[in-house]
Amino acid sequence: MYDVVIIGAGFAGLTAARTILKTASTARVLVLEAQSRLGGRCLTSRDFGGPVDIGCSWIHGYKEGSVVRQLTDELGVKCYVPNKGKGCVISGGKTLDADVAGKLSKNLSAALTAAASTSSPSPSSSLASSPERSRSEWAYNLEDVSLQWFGYEDSAKGTDAAIVGGYDKLVKKLADDVKTMGGEIQLGAKVESVKLGEKQGAPVEISIANANGKQTYSSRLVLSTIPLSLLQKSHAQLFSNMSARKAHAIDFTHVGKLGKLVVSYDEAWWPSDIGAFTILPIEPTSSNGDVPTDDLEQLLKTVPLVVSSFAIKSAPADVQPAPATHPTLLIYLPVPVVQHLEGRSATEIGQAMHAYLSTSLPSAKPCPSSPKHSVLTNWAYDPYSLGATSTPLTVESVSKGITPASFIELGRPETLGAADGKPRVLFAGEHTSVNNRGSVTGAVESGLREGRRAVQLLNL
Q1: Does an H or E element contain 358, and which?
Q2: Residue 136 pLDDT > 50
Q3: Strands 274-279 and 305-309
Q4: Closest Cα partner for 349 from 334, 371, 364, 327?
Q5: How far apart (Å, rounded) are the C-alpha atoms in residues 431 and 388?
Q6: 303-316 burial by CB neighbour count: b if 16+ within 10 A, else e?
Q7: Which residues pair with 163 in a beta bridge?
Q8: Which domain of life does the protein's organism represent (predicted)?
Q9: Calpha distance 375→357 (Å, rounded)
Q10: Are 163 and 72 in contact (CB under 8 A)?
Q11: 303 near 332, Cβ under 8 Å?
Q12: Which distant-in-sequence residues (6+ apart) come within 8 Å of 405 by Cβ?
């Protein structure tokens, strides 16, 4: 029998396992991961001239006390704060004057600050009803985001840092540390149910399916780090006797659908001294809000796009080995685009994006007819996540009773109906962090929290 079985080998699960084993070296800890790889929504591609993080990318708050930095320091993972690169804002294929672009950026920042301090007792109020609407709507789908609770969290604030060699370096170091301390990690193990044993005082039974068939493990405690979208789909089947309050928080907390597209070339045809391009939308949606979903290039023109270039030297000179520069562009895909990409290949989407970029970005060299290679991440259609991360509270979720306190509820233990009333299942993951939801910081923070809780509950 195990002391703790952890479901999920992403940052929350691996951090929790490490936390338990650091305190209780003799604890029996098993980490179960449904996928054939570690990391969850951390994914680093090596299909290009250097590693490209196509899942999580940044350590937020690196110089402001981030728990992720503490982890990288302990594990000896090298990080760097990128040089402040040159950027440009593009509208209608033309680069805006630097002063105009600067004013846009300042106005947006001021608009979001004003919105965060605006009091709105009505759950139906959105950012679209903010008096700052005209200065900020190009960056957000304002009608969806609740003004009532906008800006309460600390997520993504402070200095951003990158990991030398890709984010998955940290995942591997974490997993290696867990195994060195005696923990077990099993890949390809899909959990099918978690229930209390039939006899009084019996351990929790975890039923899984893997390449060898069906198997059941027994454990004193279970820690779930299952992504929120997957919980929304399957919590009733996975967990017996879940409380109504927890089920409500799971069902109505919103999950985003952001994606990333990476396109590479034989050489950079755009200016290699520019690190980021912001392309403003040039095609309005129809009068009823619809977008031209049958034409990808036209669809892309209806949303703002942020494009990052890997052709620029971003790391300070003292970072060794220096991250490679390569002719690659990474584009952040907002919700209106992502929700219409199901069934489309990375090649098709990459070609449509290339057609749009070729007429939008400034060119330093002749532009080729197509990209050399395209890679897409679309977590909304990934069966192991079904979504990106939790988002700012939406009007719809707030109308269902979701508040910042719901993130606390998402992280509360469950008893599974045990007669002694003691916790049997713990919950971690970015969606259980009040102040850092939607980030690796939130995932690591929750893993530390629940790892310590497990040690206390089991008196390890």
Answers
A1: helix 346-358
A2: no
A3: antiparallel
A4: 371
A5: 11
A6: bebebbbbbbbbbe
A7: 79
A8: Eukaryota
A9: 16
A10: yes
A11: no
A12: 434
- For residue 427, give the nearest of 177, 186, 168, 235 by alpha carbon: 235
Tell me how crowded residue 367 is: count the other CB atoms within 10 A of its CB. 15
Residues 6+ apart with CB under 8 A from 300: 337, 352, 353, 356
Peptide bond preceding 321 in cis form (omega within 30 of 0): yes
Report whether pLDDT(286) > 60.
Answer: no
**Dist. CA 109–CA 105, nearest whole Å:** 6
Nearest of 450, 441, 446 to residue 170 by alpha carbon? 441
Q: What CA–CA distance (Å, rounded) separates 369 from 133? A: 39
101: pLDDT strictly greater than 80 = no
- Pairing outcome for strands 204-210 and 190-196: antiparallel
Q: Which of 412, 292, 320, 291 is nearest to 79 (CA)?
A: 320
Residue 252, token pair as written in the block:
């109505």
pLDDT at 130: 45
Beta strands in 166-251 (DSSP E): 184-187, 190-196, 204-210, 213-224
- CA 230 vs. chain centroid, Å, equals 14
How far, in Å, CA of 389 to CA of 144, rounded? 16
Task: Give CA–CA dist 6/14, Å, rounded.
Answer: 9
- Quote the percentage of the chain above a pLDDT of 90: 68
Q: Which of 118, 177, 170 is nearest to 142 (CA)?
A: 118
Q: Are 451 and 19 in contact (CB under 8 A)?
A: yes
Closest CA to 172 of 371, 406, 9, 385: 9
Backbone angles phi and psi of 271, in degrees to 5:
-60, 125
Q: Which of 374, 154, 107 is nearest to 264 (CA)?
A: 374
